[in-house]
Specification:
637 residues, alpha+beta, Heat Shock Protein 90, Ribosomal Protein S5, domain 2, Rossmann fold, 4 domains, ten-stranded mixed β-sheet, five-stranded mixed β-sheet, 20 helices, 23 strands, elongated
C-alpha cells in the first residue's frame, strides 16, 4: 500500500487480479449481464438497509423510499448505477471490492480459466466463462468487461464520511475521502469504445426488462421505472413466465445456469409462508464446503432478514436456492433467535416434505432427468439418511444407486424386486470410484451367479448404512466383509449347483491346497488375519476381505484418511483354488523342500500385493515388490 496525501493505493488480492485478467481481457456476446450484476448488488444494498432499519430507524434518515437509478452521461462517456441502500465505509470497500471473501476461490478460478480456454477452442459457444461470475459474489468485477475505469462513490448509512474507490482493473485500486449528500452507492463506469451500446436508452430498457424485472425496488432511468418493482414470489404463478422465473433464479442464486426444478408455493395455515425455491442444474461450488451453509433467503413480509438462516432448511438441502417469505415470523426477530423459533421449525418441516414430494414425482415421471439431478446432488441428499431419522423412510425412496446390472440408476425397491431366488441380503461394495469398484475381483462370483450388487462410491454411503442396516426386511451386506456363501442362491439359469461341481473338478487336491495355505500363512504371519479358499472368485487368483466382525475395508480407509484411525486391521487373504497360479503354487507347496522355497515365499507376498493393488492400494514396500516380481519373472523365463 502507498499513501499520497489522503489518497491510498492498494493492490488487489491475488485471486482478484487473476479474475480481472480473465474477465477484463475477454469479449463475450452477453457482456450485458454486467448491468444485471450491478443492479442486483444495488438491490441487495437496499434490502440490507431495510432490515437494519427495523431496529435502528435512524439509519433510514427519514427516507425509506428505496430505489435504484441509472444515469447516462454521453459527454463523459459514463454509465452510472446508484442506490440509496446501506452504502460502504473504508473497511467495507477493502473487504468487498479488494478481495473475494468466499471459500473455494481456487476452484472457481480454475473453472473460469477452463471455460475460457474452451470458449477459445469453440467448444462452449454461448456457455462462456462469464456464466460462472455470479456464483462467487464477484459480479461487480464484470464491470471491467465494458469499462476501462470504474469509480465507486459511497457513504454508509449512519456515517458522515464518504469515500471514492477507483480502479482501471489492472492490479491496483485507490480509496480516498469524498463528498456525497446522502447514504448509498454510485458505481460509475467509464465505458470502453466498443461498449457505447450500453448508453443507448432502448438497450438499457431491454436489459433491465430481461434480467431485472423481478427486482423489488424501482429501477429508474430518468423519470421512468423500467421494472415491475414487486417481489416476484408475491405474484400469482399464472402471471409469471418461465423466463421471469429463470431470471429471478439468476438474481437470487447469483448463478447463470438454468434451474432444474422450480417450486413456487403459498401455504396457509397455523404458519403461513410463500416459497420460491430452485434446484440448480449444476452443483454450486461451495456444495461440499465444511460450513454446509444454506443459501435460501428468508424474508418476513417481503423484508429481507438473512441468507443464512440456520434451521430454515436442513443441511442436506443446501443446494437449494431461492426465497422463503413468512407473515407469521416477527419482523424484529434476530438472526440468533430464529434458530429456536418454533414457527421456523414448522416452516422447515413443511418445506422439506414438499421438496421430497416434488423430487419423488420427478423420479417417478422423468427418470432420465432425475438421474442428472442425482449425479449432481445425490451424495448430499443421502446425508439426510444420517441426519434425519424421521425422514429416513421417505428419503430412501428417492435415493438412486448404480449397480452391476447396467448403467441405469435404480431404487432399492427395484433391487429387492429382482433379487435372486434364495438371496436374503442386499449386497453392496463400497469404494472411492464407481468405475473402479465395478472391476473389483470381489464381484466375480456374484456376477457368475447373476446376483446384483450395488456400487456405492460416495463417502456418505458408509455412514448412512450404519444408521439403516436393512431395507424392506432385507439386511445390507458388504461383499468385502465376511464369507461369501453363494451356494444357497440360485443362479440366473437355475443350475448353480452344477456350476459349482464343474468348478471343483479343476481345483487342486485338498491336501495340496491346505499345504499352500499353510505355507502362505507361515510366510505372511501377522500381516494377514487368515488365509482361506474363496467362494467369490472366478477369474482372479486372490482378494482381501475384512472379517465378519471387523470394520468394512472402505470405511477403514475413510477414517484413516481423515486421521480418525491410526492403522488398518489385518485382513483375510482369500485364494481362488481354480486359478492356474494357485494350482501351480499348490503343487509346489506339496513337494519336497517347500519350507525353504524362496519362490514360494516371494509368491506369497506378491499375491498379497496383487490383492492390495486390485483394491486400489499400493504395495506396502514398493522396492521389495519390484524385487520379488523381477525374481519370479526370471524364474518363469
Amino acid at each position: 500500500m502507498t499513501t499520497a496525501a489522503t489518497k491510498e493505493t492498494f493492490s488487489f488480492q491475488t485471486e482478484v487480479g487473476q479474475l480481472l485478467d480473465i474477465v477484463a481481457g475477454s469479449l463475450y456476446s452477453n457482456r450485458e449481464i454486467f448491468l444485471r450484476e450491478l443492479v442486483s448488488n444495488a438491490s441487495d444494498a437496499c434490502d440490507k438497509l431495510r432490515y437494519e432499519g427495523l431496529t435502528n430507524a435512524g439509519l433510514l434518515d427519514g427516507n425509506s423510499d428505496f430505489r435504484i437509478a441509472i444515469e447516462v452521461n454521453s459527454k463523459a462517456n459514463t454509465l452510472s448505477i446508484s442506490d440509496n441502500g446501506i452504502g460502504m465505509n473504508h473497511q467495507d470497500l477493502l473487504d468487498t471490492l479488494g478481495t473475494i471473501a468466499r471459500s473455494g476461490t481456487s476452484s472457481f478460478l480454475e473453472n473460469l480459466k477452463q471455460n475460457q480456454a474452451n470458449d477459445k477452442d469453440g467448444e462452449n459457444g454461448e456457455n462462456t466463462a462469464l456464466g460462472l461470475i455470479g456464483q462467487f459474489g464477484v459480479g461487480f468485477y464484470s464491470s471491467f468487461m465494458v469499462a476501462d475505469k470504474v469509480d465507486v462513490l459511497t457513504r454508509k448509512a449512519g456515517e458522515a464520511e464518504a469515500f471514492l474507490w477507483s480502479s482501471d482493473g489492472k492490479g491496483e485500486f485507490s480509496i480516498e475521502p469524498a463528498e456525497r449528500d446522502q447514504r448509498g452507492t454510485t458505481v460509475t463506469l467509464h465505458l470502453k469504445k466498443d461498449a457505447k451500446e450500453f448508453m443507448e436508452d432502448a438497450r438499457i430498457r431491454h436489459i433491465i426488462k430481461t434480467y431485472s424485472d423481478h427486482i423489488g425496488f424501482p429501477v429508474m432511468l430518468g423519470e421512468d421505472a423500467l421494472n415491475e418493482a414487486s417481489a416476484l414470489w408475491t405474484r400469482p404463478a399464472k402471471d409469471i413466465s418461465e423466463e421471469q422465473y429463470t431470471e429471478f433464479y439468476h438474481h437470487t442464486a447469483h448463478a447463470y445456469d438454468q434451474p432444474w426444478l422450480t417450486l413456487h408455493n403459498k401455504v396457509e395455515g397455523i404458519v403461513s409462508y410463500t416459497n420460491l425455491l430452485y434446484v440448480p442444474s449444476t452443483p454450486p461450488f461451495d456444495l461440499y464446503e465444511p460450513e454446509r451453509k444454506s443459501h435460501v433467503k428468508l424474508y418476513v413480509n417481503r423484508v429481507f432478514i438473512t441468507e443464512e438462516a440456520k434451521g430454515l432448511l436442513p443441511a442436506w438441502l443446501r443446494f437449494l436456492r431461492g426465497v422463503v417469505d413468512s407473515e407469521d415470523l416477527s419482523l424484529n426477530v434476530s438472526r440468533e433467535m430464529l434458530q429456536t423459533d418454533p414457527k421456523l421449525a414448522k416452516i422447515s418441516s413443511g418445506l422439506t416434505k414438499k421438496v421430497i414430494s416434488e423430487l419423488k414425482k420427478k423420479a417417478t415421471k422423468a427418470a432420465d432427468e432425475y438421474s442428472e439431478f442425482w449425479k449432481n446432488f445425490g451424495a448430499v441428499v443421502k446425508e439426510g439418511l444420517v441426519e434425519d431419522a424421521s425422514l429416513r423412510d421417505k428419503l430412501i425412496d428417492i435415493c438412486r444407486f448404480t449397480s452391476t446390472q447396467g448403467d441405469d440408476l435404480i431404487s432399492l425397491a427395484d433391487y429387492v424386486e429382482r433379487m435372486a431366488e434364495g438371496q436374503e441380503a442386499i449386497f453392496y461394495i463400497a469404494g472411492d470410484d464407481a468405475a473402479k469398484i465395478a472391476r473389483s475381483p470381489h464381484l466375480e462370483g456374484f456376477r457368475a451367479k447373476g446376483v446384483e450388487v450395488l456400487l456405492l462410491s460416495d463417502p456418505v454411503d458408509e455412514f448412512w448404512l450404519q444408521h439403516m442396516p436393512e431395507f424392506d426386511g432385507k439386511p445390507f451386506k458388504s461383499i468385502t466383509r465376511g464369507a461369501a456363501d453363494l451356494d444357497a442362491i440360485k443362479s440366473g439359469d437355475g443350475d448353480g449347483d452344477s456350476d459349482k461341481s464343474e468348478d471343483k473338478k479343476d481345483e487342486p487336491e485338498a491336501a495340496a491346497l491346505d499345504g499352500l495355505i499353510a505355507a502362505i500363512k507361515l510366510e505372511l504371519g501377522e500381516i494377514v488375519k487368515d488365509v482361506r479358499p474363496s467362494k467369490r472368485l472366478t477369474d482372479s487368483p486372490v482378494c482381501l476381505i475384512a472379517d465378519e466382525g471387523d470394520m468394512d475395508v472402505n470405511l477403514e480407509r475413510l477414517l484413516q484418511r481423515h486421521g480418525q484411525l491410526n492403522s488398518m486391521m489385518p485382513r483375510i487373504l482369500e485364494i481362488n483354488p481354480g486359478h492356474a497360479i494357485i494350482k501351480k503354487l499348490a503343487e509346489r507347496a506339496s513337494g519336497d523342500g517347500a519350507a525353504s522355497d524362496d519362490l514360494l515365499k516371494d509368491a506369497s507376498h506378491l499375491l498379497l500385493d496383487q490383492a492390495r493393488i486390485a483394491d486400489g492400494e499400493a504395495p506396502t514396500d514398493p522396492a521389495e515388490f519390484s524385487r520379488r516380481l523381477t525374481s519370479v519373472m526370471q524364474s518363469a523365463l
